[in-house]
Amino acid sequence: MNIPVFLASDENYAPFLCTTMYSILENTKSNIDFYILDGGIKDESKKLIEKSLREFNNYSIKYFNMEIFNLERFPNIRHYSLNAFSRYFIPRLVPNIEKVIYIDVDVIVNGDIAELYNIDIENKALAAVPENFCKTNGEYVKEHIKPDFANIENYFNTGVMLLNNKQFVEKDYSTKLIDMTIKYFDKLSCPDQDIFNIIFEHNHKLIDYKFNYMPGFYESYKKVINKNDVEYLDNNAIVYHYTVGKPWKNDKVRKSDLFWKIAVKTCFSNKIKELIKNNCFYYEHWYEKIFSIFYAKNYIFITICGIKIRLKR
Fold first, then answer.
1. Using 50, 70 and 90 to split pLDDT, how confident is the model at 293?
2. 12 phi/psi in degrees, rounded to 5
3. What is the span of the domain harbouring residue 299?
4. Do 213 and 293 share a domain, yes or no?
5. Which of 9, 209, 229, 273 could hold 225 in an S-S bridge, CB 3.0 to 4.6 Å?
6. Between 274 and 55, where is the model more confident?
7. What angle do CA 73, 94, 125 make, to 5 degrees?
8. How big is the chain by its Cα radius of gyration, in Å?
9. pLDDT digits (tens, 9 = 90+) for 226-273
10. Residues 267 and 147 in one domain
11. In sequence order, which ranges of the chain are alpha helices (DSSP H)?
12. Is the pLDDT confidence value at 67 over 90?
């Protein structure tokens, strides 16, 4: 069985792309077809990725240059990369593949990803993990974007998704995603994730937390599942998603040991260690480390020394 896995990255995130890919291969016996939504990865980094993965023989890699899709038309909101919107175009890149996995690169896979791929989507457009332990994003969508949004409890995270690509092609969801993003660009908080939740509000399947566990929300999970189940999830998830607190910025974040166990095995090890040593990350402009500001229709988003503030206009 060949499992198609899509990941999106630019040059800045190449070390973490490699780490995620390595973690998948180390825990999965099936053949993996990696499709990289390439936002400008340098040839040198691609060679380092191949060198890092040379011990494995169950994978292939194909890079798609995303420049042809004019991602600059989409809103550049705070820390979100424009390359996140590249997942909109998966159906156009591989129209003949029926089902694919999309996964972010701030992720470590700690189990067989085939378990995710083998889920029955039940004729839904996608399968994803709910964020019902933290309702902020769903509440924002209802209050500022779509007043009749009734899916606050089932608002899902798009960092890990199983996509019914056949349905995406047949119903041209790529165009719908693009059009709605442009329509609401000045209102979005979690840009592409908000759009996915609006379009697929009634056309998605919720799956187990273990397929997209966010250790930064460890305490929040206790609001929706009992303490013992949270403990089990914390130690036995298949996918660990570092949404809050990145291990390459702070090696004390919860479950950072899983990230570093993999990162040190890659050819980017020294580069990532340098990041944690300097307690910094890549920025397009040096001053963005200190201050950045984004104006939306209803809010002003300010980042000062890594602290994010939202002010109502």
1. low
2. -60, -35
3. 285-313
4. no
5. 229
6. 55
7. 80
8. 19
9. 999 999 999 999 999 999 889 998 888 999 999 999 999 999 999 999
10. yes
11. 14-27, 43-52, 90-93, 114-117, 136-144, 165-170, 173-183, 191-199, 227-236, 256-263, 269-278
12. no
